[in-house]
Amino acid sequence: MPTIALFWGIRILMYWNDHEPPHFHVEYQEQKAVLGVDPLVVQKGCLPNRVLRLVLAWAELHKEELLQDWELSRDGKPLQLIEGLKS
User: Most C-beta atoms within 10 A of its C-beta, which of 23, 32, 83, 84?
Assistant: First the structure.
């Protein structure tokens, strides 16, 4: 599963040819979650509130890029890295 973004200890991943609807995976320390892209909601798992707020803010800024990577993943093509949040 390729890492498409990494910032502040938060790892954002996306599987190739994964099930619908469009979503991405988040890992932070020992915690994991799956978030839908549109709508931007937690589908599975949990993250600390601070981390979840950061991920939601990042995903809102990069929704189009996430959807582009989703389409690439459905076609089994290499995914594009997405810039992380900056301080």
Answer: 23
Q: Would you give the end-to-end CA distance of the chain in angstroms?
A: 27
The rounded distance, in Å, linking the Cα atoms of 51 and 27 is 10
Per-residue model confidence as pLDDT tens digits over 22-38? 999 999 999 999 999 99
CB 73, CB 13: distance < 8 Å: no
- Which amino acid type is present at position 43? Q
Contact (CB, 8 A) for 33 and 45: yes
3-state secondary structure at position 82: coil
Per-residue DSSP letter, 24: E
